[in-house]
Amino acid sequence: MHVDSSALRCSRLLPLCAALCGPLLLQPRGADAGDAVVQTPQTRAELSAEHSVAAPGESLWVALSIDLKPKWHTYWRTPGDAGEPIVITWKLPDGVVAGPIQWPTPERFSFSGITGFGYTRHVTLLTELKIASSVAAPTEILLRADGAWLICAEICVPEDGSFSLPIKIDPAHRKIAADAAFTAARDAVPRPAPWPVKATRSGNTLTITAGPGIAEPALTSVLFFPYDADLIANGAKQDFRFQDGTLELKLELTSDAAKRGEAAGVLRFDPANSPLPAGYTFTAPILSDTGN
What we know:
Blueprint: H1 14-21, E1 37-39, E2 43-49, E3 53-54, E4 59-68, E5 73-80, E6 87-91, E7 96-98, E8 107-111, E9 114-120, E10 122-131, E11 139-152, E12 156-169, H2 180-188, E13 191-192, E14 197-202, E15 205-210, E16 219-226, E17 239-243, E18 246-252, E19 262-271, E20 278-288
Parallel strand pairs: 3-12, 13-20, 14-20
Antiparallel strand pairs: 1-2, 2-4, 4-10, 5-9, 6-11, 7-10, 8-9, 11-12, 14-15, 15-18, 16-19, 17-18, 19-20
């Protein structure tokens, strides 16, 4: 076995990476460049498009889906105490532009006292490709992307793959109903909070208050996933109270949090009557306990 710690892409301190990841195993990509599928012993990754035909001036949604074997996980845009987010680098024809990754609502997991944010079993990352009206048609274009993701269990393995996908550009094509898998992937992406959210600091405690107007009848858990990796103590307990359509969530701040002027991220609701979480994004200025 060849061990090369320099290949481990961790975004936090090396001691945290060592505790979380242990020894590193380097893996082959599992597929030649140019495939839509990359297979490794731990994962299966696939690039797909919602439709095989698009017209100039339209948008085309594409997805990178990663299936993970049991006990493995990969990482959200803010990985937590250690880890690295999934990266997609697009190589697109002239006139085709990729938007940002649409991240599904993440999970929280812990290993050896290290807390991470990300996904187990399966994740689908959506990206909107905008096709300029100037793209010549009819024709066929090739979408290319390089993906990289870190997966961890008792060890961590950096994986990557090169994908390609042919798409026909035809102004005469008829619009087709949304693909069921893409509809499910869209439903997994958090949406902007439809009710007011405020954040208040008191000592080393941040209180997020959401509502009134939250309609969920009963919640088994509520978690906050920050976009800022240095805002909260990721592994600390998050206590919530939900009453009369208003949520109050208390979080432990880091020692660096005093430098932060706002709280932004995702609230994950786990309803008692549904196996699927609901995610809501928000950005709120952090007020002092006096309201200033």
